[in-house]
Write a structure and sequence with these properties.
Layout lengths: L2 H55 L7
Length: about 60
């Protein structure tokens, strides 16, 4: 294999590798943001479940 072909192949592979690294970084950032969002949603669910449970335990005359 001529040295020019090796050099061209090497450059192509380096470029593809860097593109893969960039894509992986972006995916990790998306994952971190999604995890934060899910944590906030889980917290909101917990609060609403606690409010719902508290309402079920209060006497009916407080609802009037």
């Amino acid at each position: 294999m001529p040295i020019n072909n090796i050099h061209a192949s090497l450059e192509t592979l380096r470029t593809e590798y860097q593109s893969g690294q960039d894509a992986l970084k972006a995916l990790r950032e998306q994952q971190a943001e999604l995890e934060k969002t899910m944590l906030r949603i889980a917290g909101a669910i917990q609060v609403l479940e606690e409010v719902e449970a508290a309402e079920k335990q209060t006497p009916d005359d407080q609802a009037q």
